[in-house]
Fold this sequence. Notes:
The protein is α+β, with helices and mostly antiparallel strands. Helices cover about 35% and strands about 25% of the residues. The protein has three domains: about 5-50, Uridine Diphospho-n-acetylenolpyruvylglucosamine Reductase, domain 2; about 55-170, Uridine Diphospho-n-acetylenolpyruvylglucosamine Reductase, domain 3, CATH 3.30.465.10; about 180-285, Enolase-like, domain 1 (2-Layer Sandwich), CATH 3.30.390.
Amino acid sequence: xxxxxxxxxxxxxxxxxxxxxxxxxxxxxxxxxxxxxxxxxxxxxxxxxxxxxxxxxxxxxxxxxxxxxxxxxxxxxxxxxxxxxxxxxxxxxxxxxxxxxxxxxxxxxxxxxxxxxxxxxxxxxxxxxxxxxxxxxxxxxxxxxxxxxxxxxxxxxxxxxxxxxxxxxxxxxxxxxxxxxxxxxxxxxxxxxxxxxxxxxxxxxxxxxxxxxxxxxxxxxxxxxxxxxxxxxxxxxxxxxxxxxxxxxxxxxxxxxxxxxxxxxxxxxxxxxxxxxxxxxxxxxxxxxx
Length: 290
Ligand code: FAD
C-alpha cells in the first residue's frame, strides 16, 4: 500500500520543529522512519504533515555526566551499539542492542523513535524501565522530565503530548560490582522478541540478593518492570526454591498476548525460563565481582 498524501517539512532546529508541531492539528514527527513509514504505508496513521527531525544534530549525541550517561533522542541504534561509553557503563544495553532488527534498520532507527513508538517487544522501552531512565521531553512552552515507569501508556502509546518532542534520555551508569544479564528469544535473528528479560543484581555484604531489577518485553501491553518479583528475591540468600517461587509468581502477573507467532502460554513459559537463566547469569557475575 501507499500512504495517503501528506506535506513534508524538514526542520533545521528543535525550535523550528516545535513551532511546526504546535501549529498543525495532526502533524507527526519523523526521525529514522523505520516504524512510522510502515504505519504510513499501511495507513494506520494518516497525518497531513510530516516534520522531519533527522537533521537535528543537537539531538544526536552520547555523553557522560558524572554517574549518568545521557543519550540524545536522535542517536541511531548503530551508534549506541558501537559506543565505548555504553559498552563500559551500560553493558546490558550494549548486549540488548545486538538483538535490535537488521543493519539497515539499525543505521536509521533512533532511540527517541523507539521510545516514542513504544512497541512492547522493543528493546529500548524495556531497557529504560530496567535502568530507571529519565526521559526528557520538550514543547514550545515547557520542558518535562518523565521517569520511564510513567512514560508508557499502553501498546504503541505513551504520555507524550502531541506538541512534544522527546529530546534526550538519562541512564544511571551500572555500578562495577553489579551483575547483569540479558536474554532474548526470537524466531529469527533481527525479529522482534517473543520474550526477553534483563536483570541487574548486587550481592550485599551478607551474601544476599540486593538491588535486584527485572525488566521484561514481549509479554504484555507494554514493556514491564517486575517490582513484585524483585520483592520476592531481594533481601534473601540465593536458592533454587526461591527462584522457582519467583518464576511461579509470573503466572497471573504477566498476561502475554496470543498472536500468530506464539500462544500466551508459550510466552509465559518462555518468560519463566529466560528469567531463570538471566537471574542465574547475573547472580554469578555479581558473585564473581564481589
Ligand atoms: P520513526 O519511525 O521515525 O517514528 C516512530 C514514532 O515515534 C512516530 O510516531 C514518530 O512520530 C515518533 N517519534 C520519533 N522520534 C520522536 C521524538 N524524538 N519525539 C517524539 N516523537 C518521536 N525495534 C526494536 O526495538 N527491536 C527489533 O527487533 C526491531 N525489529 C524491527 C524489524 C523491522 C523489519 C522494522 C521495520 C523495525 C524494527 N524495529 C525494531 C523498529 C526500529 O527499531 C525503529 O527504528 C524504531 O522503533 C523507531 O525509531 P525511528 O527513529 O525509526 O522512529
